[in-house]
């Protein structure tokens, strides 16, 4: 599989380093030899591990270590020049390296614009949509991509799950890649003929300049909930970092969900023009919003939702979310308004979103109800709040019993294990407790902690099962369920591996669920033969 760092254009432009120095006011340190006028560069990176031949290595002062510490590795991998700050230049000189060095007061801020310049500003040739917020980024981004795909032959979608350009996808190292990697991927997308890109923009990315150098056509805000305060300090700091996306150098216009106070604050203070969307039916906030969800119900397919979206002109549009639950009505409404702002016809956007049910690991409909099989869903919910939301979303679409396969991560928040158990026992009917990513912990001990919470809520232990492998848990769940039931497998979502005792085993809930269904279909056919 291609590494994310290799997602770059096949035919990069070549730039003279002296020209880059002049354009970005980079200076040669006083005691260094002047730049060779013939020296050229074709790419940019901030990580020595990602260097390609001909790269500029931008060595940033990190939160833990100075990037210039890795200049030797970068040069060995093919970097032709190091751009860093004054402290970095001292480190490179101290290491006795002969590589040319250029100094910038703020290399982290520079990395994005420099990479955008080197790759010929690919973002300007694409329709670009960015989505930020605590929850719903992935789902909304895929809904937007579905709408963009209805209007463009080739698109790119970038986020937590994958980096996908046309039909080529690689696993994503994080929600928003580093600024130079982003520009490289955009350049690749342009080279492959893509017309549009939808991407997730995390708060870390905004704080660390990963989208600098790109001005989005449209950006969206989902919501803000308590998260990542270790990094952002407090909610105000977290909000300020998110709000950086709504600035003229980052985006031309925005769409903001105003269901929470943070969305309302953002809409009221945004320096770029924004449209507002209210998604809670009956909330008076909807009266003043440009767009409002004024009715929502379970969809005709018995899984998703239908809803009515009132537009700024008062017209009512019948729309649908293919995924269960009201949070996905919210995500779908935002995506429709974002896609429209990005130039997709409203009716086209509504239709495309209504059919976008293959979002990897986000309430993903893997097995449809029927032929004796339950509805089978895979969801990433791995926190108590998300588990509540997921189970509440699935209950109304479940005529029979709600069967939950779940576990909890090792080497992470131990306190949530019994809480997850309690929630599961309260909101699901049949539980199969199993392993998630045990990492260095004893899997049985993690399951025991979950089961303690289960017992507190359901002392009888009725319909509570334990399975020592996740694949077995899925097999058990499917064997226990009828076609009136729903099986939901939570915790790992799209993850392609399971981490056990330091080893990453290839494993994916969706694949296993499909394999188990196929096994059962075969077994049934044989028993009828
Ligand atoms: C907290 C955080 O976001 N840290 C980011 C920050 O790291 P840092 O300043 O500590 O970097 P450092 O380790 O001190 O290294 C300094 C520089 O040396 C470079 N280096 C380092 C080691 C090496 O061998 N070679 C090398 O070149 C690094 O690439 C870096 O440029 O700057 C680095 C690049 O300049 C990022 O790679 C790094 O992201 C780390 C890996 C990370 O895990 N970030 C997570 C928290 C993150 O960004 N998450 C969000 C999603 C959050 C969510 O919503 O859940 C995301 O967008 O994925
Ligand atoms: N609009 C929403 N409001 C609140 N919760 C939501 C919303 N959309 C999704 N969720 C919940 O948040 C979880 C994560 O959803 P999603 O992956 O789309 O968000 P995200 O912002 O991309 O988060 P992550 O980066 O962790 O993937 C889901 O399990 C779902 O239960």
Automatic annotation (TrEMBL):
List cofactor names only: Mg(2+)
> To which pathway does this protein belong?
Cell wall biogenesis; peptidoglycan biosynthesis
What are the record's GO terms for cellular component? cytoplasm
Q: Could you list the residue ranges that cross the membrane?
A: none
Against InterPro entries, the record matches this protein to: Mur-like_cat_sf (IPR036565), Mur_ligase_C (IPR004101), Mur_ligase_C_dom_sf (IPR036615), Mur_ligase_cen (IPR013221), Mur_ligase_N (IPR000713), MurE/MurF_N (IPR035911), UDP-N-AcMur-Glu-dNH2Pim_ligase (IPR005761)
An example of a Gene Ontology BP annotation on this entry? peptidoglycan biosynthetic process
Q: How is it modified after translation?
A: Carboxylation is probably crucial for Mg(2+) binding and, consequently, for the gamma-phosphate positioning of ATP.
Q: Where does UDP-N-acetyl-alpha-D-muramoyl-L-alanyl-D-glutamate bind?
A: 48, 175-176, 202, 210
Localization, per the record, is: Cytoplasm
Where is the Mur ligase N-terminal catalytic domain positioned along the sequence?
42-90
Q: What is its EC number?
A: 6.3.2.-
Q: Is Ligase one of the keywords UniProt gives this record? A: yes
Q: Name one Pfam family in it.
A: Mur_ligase_M
Q: Which HAMAP family match?
A: MurE
- Annotated function: Catalyzes the addition of an amino acid to the nucleotide precursor UDP-N-acetylmuramoyl-L-alanyl-D-glutamate (UMAG) in the biosynthesis of bacterial cell-wall peptidoglycan.
- Name of the featured protein: UDP-N-acetylmuramyl-tripeptide synthetase
């Amino acid at each position: 599989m291609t590494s994310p760092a290799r997602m770059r254009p096949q035919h990069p432009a070549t730039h003279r380093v002296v020209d880059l120095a002049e354009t970005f006011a980079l200076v040669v340190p006083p005691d260094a030899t002047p730049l060779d006028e013939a020296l050229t560069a074709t790419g940019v990176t901030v990580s020595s591990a990602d260097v390609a031949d001909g790269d500029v290595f931008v060595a940033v002062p990190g939160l833990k270590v100075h990037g210039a510490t890795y200049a030797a590795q970068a040069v060995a991998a093919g970097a032709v020049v190091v751009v860093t700050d004054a402290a970095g230049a001292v480190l490179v000189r101290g290491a006795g390296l002969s590589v040319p060095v250029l100094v910038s007061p703020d290399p982290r801020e520079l990395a994005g614009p420099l990479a955008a310049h080197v790759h010929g500003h690919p973002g300007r040739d694409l329709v670009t949509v960015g989505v930020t917020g605590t929850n719903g980024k992935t789902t909304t981004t895929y809904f937007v991509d579905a709408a963009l795909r209805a209007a463009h032959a080739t698109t790119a979608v970038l986020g937590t799950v994958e980096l996908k350009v046309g039909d080529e996808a690689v696993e994503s190292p994080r929600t928003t890649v580093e600024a130079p990697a982003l520009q490289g991927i955009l350049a690749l997308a342009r080279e492959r003929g893509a017309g549009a890109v939808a991407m997730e923009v995390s708060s870390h990315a905004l704080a660390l300049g990963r989208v600098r150098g790109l001005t989005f056509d449209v950006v969206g805000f989902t919501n803000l909930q308590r998260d990542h305060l270790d990094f952002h300090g407090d909610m105000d700091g977290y909000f300020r970092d998110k709000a950086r996306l709504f600035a003229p150098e980052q985006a031309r216009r925005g769409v903001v969900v105003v269901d929470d106070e943070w969305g309302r604050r953002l809409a009221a203070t945004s320096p770029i023009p924004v449209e507002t969307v209210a998604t809670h039916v009956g909330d008076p906030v909807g009266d003043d919003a440009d767009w409002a969800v004024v009715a929502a119900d379970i969809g005709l397919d018995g899984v998703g939702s239908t809803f009515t979206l009132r537009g700024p002109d008062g017209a009512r549009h019948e729309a649908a979310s293919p995924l269960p639950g009201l949070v996905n009505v919210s995500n779908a409404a935002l995506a429709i308004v974002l896609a429209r702002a990005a130039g997709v016809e409203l009716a086209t956007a509504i239709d495309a979103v209504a059919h976008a049910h293959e979002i990897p690991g986000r309430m993903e409909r893997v097995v449809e109800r029927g032929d004796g099989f339950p509805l089978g869903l895979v969801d990433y919910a791995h926190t108590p709040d998300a588990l509540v939301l997921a189970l509440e979303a699935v209950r109304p679409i479940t005529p029979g019993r709600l069967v939950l396969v779940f576990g909890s991560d090792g080497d992470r928040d131990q306190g949530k294990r019994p809480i997850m158990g309690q929630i599961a026992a309260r909101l699901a009917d049949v539980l199969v407790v199993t392993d998630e990513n045990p990492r260095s912990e004893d899997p049985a001990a993690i399951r025991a902690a979950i089961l303690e919470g289960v017992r507190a809520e359901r002392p009888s232990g009725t319909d509570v099962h334990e399975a020592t492998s996740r694949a077995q848990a899925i097999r058990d769940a499917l064997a226990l369920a009828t076609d009136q039931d729903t099986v939901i497998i939570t915790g790992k979502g799209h993850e392609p591996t399971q981490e056990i005792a330091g080893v990453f085993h290839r494993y994916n809930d969706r694949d296993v669920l499909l394999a188990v269904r196929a096994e059962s279909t075969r077994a049934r056919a044989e028993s009828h033969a």
